[in-house]
Write the structure tokens for this entry.
Amino acid sequence: GNWTAKAFGLAVSPDGISWTRSISNPVFWPGTPGYWGSPVVTLAEGSGGALLDGFTLTGGDAPQGAGVLVENGPAVTLLHLTVPGNHGGDGGGIRVVNGATALISATAIVSNTATWGGGVLVDLGGSATIVGSDIRGNTAEDSGGGIDAWWPGSRVDISRSTVAGNSARQGGGIHATEDAAVHLTQVTLVDNTAGE
């Protein structure tokens, strides 16, 4: 049948799956900073095939995935995003969890904070492929200032990316538990700091 273009905030979609920012103002942010609320964007079951392209996702303050939460199975693409200044418990910038899969490409994940996974947290069987991206200046109170991966079945593949200037108690740049898989190809790791 015919599909009518839909609008979502300052985004438009020709098909209800791929969303592109409005040139007039591509910034999304939720609620009042300082209060646990919701992630800026949640892609959950039923969001398979979704594409976010060209947004700035900032100001999220949520218990998990404050900037972007990808959960419960969908395979999504996050392209040309800027994800700065979010604060979460599990995953400050992006969290990929519970069998979800995310391709994160040409994206800047900067200056986010969390308890675990200041920039990116991949856990509980989630999978992330990070390509040509910049993960910089993120902080975790516990582990994975830049990237944190844990639990069996969780996987992170990083290529042609920079992980720099991140900090955490354990794994300032990248932290992974022994049951998670992390693969690096042409990755620059520089100026990350850990307390242990």
